[in-house]
Amino acid sequence: MDIQEVLQWTDEQVFAKTGKHLDSLQKAILEGTWQHQKYGEIAENYNCSHDHVKKQAWKLWKLLSDILEEDIKQSNFRSLFETLGSYSNITNNCVNIVNNSVNLNGKNSQFSEITQHQNPDLQKDRSHPPNNNNPNLNQPRKSDLTEAPEVLSFYDRTSELSTLKQWILEEQMRLITIYGLSEIGKSAIAVQLIKEIQQEFDIIIWRSLSQKPLLLELKTNLIQCLSQTEDSPLPTVLDYFRSYRCLLILDDLQSIFISGQLAGQYLPNYEDYGLFFKQIATSCHPSCLILLSWEKPREIYILEGKNSCIRTLHLQGLGEGGKAILEEKELLDEEQWLELINLYQGHPMALKLIANTIDNLFNGYVSNFLNSKTVFLGDLEFLFQSHWQRLSVVEKQIIIEMANQSEEVEIEPMILVLKLSLDEIINGIQSLQRRGLLERGKEANHSKFFLDPLFKIYMSKKGIN
């Protein structure tokens, strides 16, 4: 069997499955893999980036794995097809896909049974067994979610979940940061995401950094957990990331950042976390690390870009999805619910607090509360106080000035008013953006910024000016 025969047969099976023929890059990946080329060599010959070839190859192997019900990948592609070729005359169309099985010379037999008979070692590394009656088919091989929070109610995050799934499953992002205000729903969306994509991973682990473990402690803990999948434990976390498709979630990342400094700066003795994240983001592997934080690490801000394997999601309010919270409390005046949601920026915790207040003190009438012309924060003030205390002196100066303005603010006037240098202003604004407290306006021709409205209300109530 030669590569042209393999390409012809594979193209026929892919077309039968998807209605589309192999494209030129897919053919280049198959041909290069057959010739024992690495992705870098294929990328150079095809005149595209290594990461692009790697992403497209992963999609192709997954497609072929689904068609043949066998774990097809770069390392075993040729040996599997050579085995298939020796068992059957592939060029005479004796091999056909029938109901996700392989029909060999008229005998309906699972492809996995053939390859196992020819080479039993090929069965050792399978992630998705073909038995559709297996109750564990949609479960990861190993999961440890003991430190994940219990989420009793999950509110509509359809758009954000779709984005995250695209980044992870289609674009093969290696590092994703989800950041935003406290109690905005970062952990909740991560828990829901796991439920929806867990079948795509071999190993899923959730760890909280709230107790500030040193990186060495964290790695030791992770390897102890990961080594349960191996007879001979691998030496590093990255080795497991390369050998399996792992999903690791690190929650409460802000716990290892310094308060009173610009956002995303590590505590003393925690700087190696930044190197670890960079290593995960820039090394070749099929796994994904998700960081949940109040603020974005500085190295993420530097490394992310269009062609990188890093993405960031700034999680904001629920929008109309917040109606579910008001419905749970059976509040009245439904036509005014959206006005209430907008007033509180769709913040889930804020909406829960205010829904209780309206139920208890305004007999459930949203209109009566809105007519009172007050914005009640309740326990939310303590959450915002934690954010305020983390700000640097320069950030506090900038944010106070912005809170006193009714419109979006430009950089140049702030330099004159605050008597700060341009460097201080720029560093302060970028840091506040990494905290999710500052947004850039939508005007394309002007760099104007505005303060998170709910945080602005907090500052007004606390008399911070």
TrEMBL record:
Residue stretches of biased makeup (Low complexity): 129-140
Phylogenetic placement of the source organism: Bacteria, Bacillati, Cyanobacteriota, Cyanophyceae, Oscillatoriophycideae
Protein name (Swiss-Prot/TrEMBL): Uncharacterized protein
GO molecular function, one term: ADP binding
Domain NB-ARC: 160-253
Gene3D superfamilies found in the cross-reference section: P-loop containing nucleotide triphosphate hydrolases
Top-level taxonomic group: Bacteria
Domain vWA-MoxR associated protein N-terminal HTH: 1-82
A Pfam family matched in the record: NB-ARC
Region (Disordered): 115-143
InterPro entries to which the protein is assigned, alphabetical: HTH_VMAP-M9 (IPR058651), NB-ARC (IPR002182), P-loop_NTPase (IPR027417), RNA_pol_sigma_r3/r4-like (IPR013324)
